[in-house]
Design goal:
The chain has 224 residues and is an alpha+beta fold. It is built from four helices and eleven strands, in the order ββαββαβββββαββα.
């Protein structure tokens, strides 16, 4: 992880594809605990350090994650994520050309907890949740296409599931139909930008994450 923004109330990191945001069954150290250790040392804090998780990124996804350093910021950010006041933009490298250069996808997602996977349907189903995203084509090479994705809703595996349903699985995402995995177990989905009004100062925060390492990301950076 690298820290891209920090003040008294929030801290924003650019996570790598291997890192987890919150503790899970793997027992690996999550970013929330690493940040507590970092703040404890940096500010020489005695006792417990507060870090609040406001949202998550899947483990194989890289990019921006916002954490709260105070309970006031946490409660306000949680409310802002609920009411869609936080705007997130993702970049995805997909393995097939989209049907149009720009479009809106509306599906109904059903989550299978046992498989840790979501399924997209064109019509409402029992237990389904409406999922909406907007995409546009930024660049392409011979074999891959770079899409910019704006989320309108925040559903489980939404981008991965909806792009796959469109016929454009994300590079490396075996779970949703990519032909092969990436060597580092990542998928080519990156939380590129986040925009929101600061929960305490009320200033506009607009942050962009550097792209992950790798020849393909570097090539697409030159094309955009």
């Amino acid at each position: 992880m690298t820290i891209v923004y920090e003040d008294n109330h929030i801290i924003v990191v650019n996570k790598t594809a291997s890192e987890i945001v919150q503790g899970d069954k793997t027992g690996d150290e999550p970013l929330s605990e690493r940040l507590k250790s970092y703040l404890k040392v940096k500010y020489n804090k005695p006792g417990n350090v507060f870090i609040g998780v406001t949202h998550r990124l899947d483990r194989p996804v890289s990019g921006l994650v916002v954490f709260a350093k105070t309970s006031k910021a946490l409660s306000r950010l949680n409310a802002m994520f609920q009411t869609k006041e936080v705007k997130k933009t993702y970049w995805a490298i997909v393995t097939a050309a989209p049907p149009q250069e720009e479009g809106e996808l509306v599906h109904y997602l059903v989550r299978n907890e046992k498989q840790n996977k979501s399924y997209a349907y064109d019509r409402e189903r029992p237990e389904s949740k409406r999922a909406i995203l907007h995409y546009r084509l930024l660049a392409h090479s011979e074999r891959y296409w770079l899409l910019e994705v704006d989320l309108q809703t925040g559903r489980h595996h939404q981008i991965r599931c909806q792009l796959a349903k469109m016929g454009c699985p994300i590079k490396g995402d075996l779970k949703y139909g990519a032909p092969r995995s990436n060597p580092d177990a990542s998928i080519c989905l990156h939380a590129r930008q986040i925009r929101f009004i600061h929960p305490v100062s009320k200033e506009m925060i607009n942050l962009t994450a550097p792209l992950p390492d790798g020849n393909l990301w570097a090539a697409f950076k030159q094309l955009t």
